């Protein structure tokens, strides 16, 4: 009765803790709480696994104070699905607040790709031979994509150490690549690849997201103008 009376109201299923979800109850709820564990690193594995069964638009990923990862890392991970914040905003310093505001602006612009695009898994966090996890969402008409890569192991100067082959792009189109969610004042290089690369090249030869211990999370936006 509540859903029928308020069809446009967002309602999260979180009673009794995380993980209580099935498609039967999703006819009444717009989203669900996957786990009370909101540690940024752990959430990569949790959200990756849930996404095998449920779409990103239904998976609530909130930025919290849990974990030792930076605010940027936690935000980049939370952007994999329904982004939210469970933090005391007044405790954020100037750079943290500015970063969060800019990240939310980017998310508002790109959320339709994440919510309604096609998900492609590039590097699994469960593959022990890799130090990263990587996935991307591609729009239905393949003109835009959002690519997430995370460092999940920081032993022995770990990182991407080479290219990641992309998926789901239009092989005949040319894409520009630009990094988003850049932390204010960061003294590390960012990716702004102005020269276009074809979808065929990116899927055949790949591209290095430059993830390492200095850049443990990287979010890249791909855009085609053709």
TrEMBL record:
Keyword annotations: Glycosidase, Hydrolase
Domain of life: Eukaryota
Domain Glycosyl hydrolase family 36 C-terminal: 133-209
Entry-linked Gene3D superfamilies: Aldolase class I, Golgi alpha-mannosidase II
BP GO terms, sorted: carbohydrate catabolic process
A GO MF label: alpha-galactosidase activity
UniProt entry tagged with the keyword Hydrolase: yes
Any single Pfam family the record assigns to this protein: Melibiase
Protein name stated in the entry: Glycosyl hydrolase family 36 C-terminal domain-containing protein
Organism: Rotaria magnacalcarata
